[in-house]
């Protein structure tokens, strides 16, 4: 099976959560948006409903033969069993999907820090509001989400560096990506947070050492973080420097 | 099977999307938060991980025997086949779940209109920003989401008042709730939008006429919309009156 990932070119964005699963499993896939200049046209034809009766609202979406799946969490739920990235069993798969949906919520909040008023407008036009939102995010929401995932790792009876019982899963890859992005966007705040989250730190180190992930991160396929994506580094939104 | 729904008492909130599915199917369920004064304590014990190894990040969550499921879209995906609210088949179920996740995204944006800076702070403390966000939402995001769902209904080969092929599904119930909430929150804007979305209007009317839904909406179990929930009516956030 050759999987086709449809996502906007040149940025990691939400597509990266899917790429990491495909790369980690050594899956055969094509990243349509980055594969050729025609990628954007192909994506648009799906969104317009010309190429499918199931038009997604937005990328990323994945095609696997006759099946089309939209939304990161839905794609990963679909790929998980096929790529060996989630254990067997209905209860644990619903749990993994719920965790992934919590990552989805976390990522949406991270994005909205730099776009609190409108996604359609420039950061610079909403910078003052972004600063107020960043303060609230760093003070309240960041520790709440990190604390939750830390608790989940601590409660996992099977492991101290995995979220889901039974070992490594696609949710670990997504938490790795989220923490990597947060470290890029808010380096000072994350330096302060990480010592009190040893389970997350162990998970992130473990994922980065996985053979195919390490190879991927060192390859040209891994696009850089930038101020066009979800995780953006604007120094004025990070915690103030220590005094 | 008696389903247990865990959600905060006194408000519709995100729990309402689950209630509508359970009510429409005539399922045996208990609304734990509203059932007794002990409801909040029971919810908290799940969130703290005292009652489960799978602690949800937040309500709503559902218990069905040994299974615990968090997040509206995950709960509905779980209930859909059991309650006869989604057709058979992997491809169409992934499509229904993707549509539901688009409803999730839409609902999150609707909520953030009145809380653009922080969910932890009062509306009154972020009213000016809320007005800027409401303008952007009504001008750009509301028509984009409604236009998308209208397109999906129009493309459905089986029906002109259902989202998913094969007929009525849990996604229709969620779109009904979303449009009902939008009409409560933004009556002027929705009066202007609805004439150009005849498929959505037909779907909403059809759902409201379903026997068990009509009975539920007329019962005391249907909590009122209010300024404590997702859909809040603040006149200053709606479109200006016609001049």
Automatic annotation (TrEMBL), chains A, B:
Please report the name of this protein according to its UniProt entry: Glutathione S-transferase
Q: Which CDD domains match?
A: GST_C_Sigma_like (cd03192)
Which parts form a coiled-coil structure per UniProt? none
Please list the residue ranges annotated as the GST C-terminal domain.
93-225
Q: Which source organism?
A: Modicisalibacter tunisiensis
Q: Which domain of life is it from?
A: Bacteria
Q: Which InterPro entries match?
A: Glutathione-S-Trfase_C-like, Glutathione-S-Trfase_C_sf, GST_C, GST_superfamily, Thioredoxin-like_sf
């Amino acid at each position: 099976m050759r999987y086709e990932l449809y996502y906007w070119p040149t940025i990691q964005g939400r597509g990266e959560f899917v790429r990491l699963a495909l790369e980690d499993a050594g899956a055969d896939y094509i990243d349509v948006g980055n594969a050729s200049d025609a990628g954007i046209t192909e994506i648009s034809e799906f969104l317009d409903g010309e190429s499918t009766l199931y038009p997604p609202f937005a990328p990323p979406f994945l095609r696997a033969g006759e099946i089309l799946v939209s939304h990161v969490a839905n794609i990963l739920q679909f790929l998980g069993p096929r790529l060996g990235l989630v254990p067997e069993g209905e209860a644990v798969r619903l749990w993994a999907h719920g965790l992934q949906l919590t990552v989805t919520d976390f990522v949406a909040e991270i994005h909205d820090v730099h776009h609190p008023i409108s996604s359609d407008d420039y950061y610079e036009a909403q910078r003052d509001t972004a600063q107020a939102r960043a303060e609230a995010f760093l003070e309240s929401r960041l520790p709440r989400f990190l604390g939750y995932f830390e608790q989940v790792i601590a409660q996992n009876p099977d492991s101290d560096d995995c979220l889901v019982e039974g070992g490594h899963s696609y949710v670990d890859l997504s938490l790795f990506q989220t923490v990597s992005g947060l470290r890029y966007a808010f380096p000072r705040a994350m330096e302060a947070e990480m010592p009190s989250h040893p389970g997350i730190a162990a998970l992130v180190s473990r994922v980065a050492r996985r053979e195919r992930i390490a190879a991927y991160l060192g390859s040209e396929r891994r696009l850089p973080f930038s101020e066009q994506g979800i995780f953006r580094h604007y120094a004025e939104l990070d915690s103030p420097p220590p005094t």
